[in-house]
């Protein structure tokens, strides 16, 4: 628990530092206010007592909110590569030829790894981490072809996912 508490204290301190910088006007362009500046303005102009924890919660959502879909994407990419060892071997060979064995892949290496990029894009095509369209709802009652016996009623919410065809 000590490590967890320490991590949260560090994050809290970091978020407070960002808030303090905005309040002092450091690194802030008056012509182009960012989301943190807008949230601080809302907090200062609120009828409620100022509570920086609300602003810190927003910052935490912004910084940490995308980690789940990123982690899910990495899991799908690795799963796809494990299911196709010949493709994994090509990716490994490309990485070793560009990066070598003694260092990690750097952002500057990415343009030199077209096969890895193609594998990632293909994986995203087959295993999209997010629904492709905004939520919809049915306009009338109907039977589905996908699940025989399943009846979709009027105004049922739907999340549309791409239909995947494999050749």
Q: Which features characterize this protein?
A:
167 residues; mainly alpha; two-stranded antiparallel ribbon; two-stranded antiparallel sheet; 6 helices; 4 strands; 54% helix; flat
Structural write-up:
By secondary structure, the chain is mostly helical. It contains six helices and four strands; from the N terminus they run H-H-H-H-H-H-E-E-E-E. A hairpin with a 7-residue loop joins strand 2 and strand 3. Helix 1 packs across helix 3, helix 2 packs antiparallel against helix 3 and helix 4 crosses helix 6.
Strand content: under 5%
The overall strand count is 4
Proportion of residues in helical segments: 40-55%
Mean pLDDT: 82
Label the structural class.
mainly alpha
SSE run: HHHHHHEEEE
What composes the largest sheet? 2 strands, antiparallel
For the termini, the CA-CA separation is 50 Å
Please mark out the parts with pLDDT under 50 across 5 or more consecutive residues, or reply none.
none
The order of strands across the largest sheet is 1-4
- Give the overall shape: flat
- Individual helix count: 6
Count of discrete domains = 3
Question: Would you kindly provide a brief summary of this structure?
Answer:
Helix content is 54%, strand content 5%. It is built from six helices and four strands; from the N terminus they run H-H-H-H-H-H-E-E-E-E.
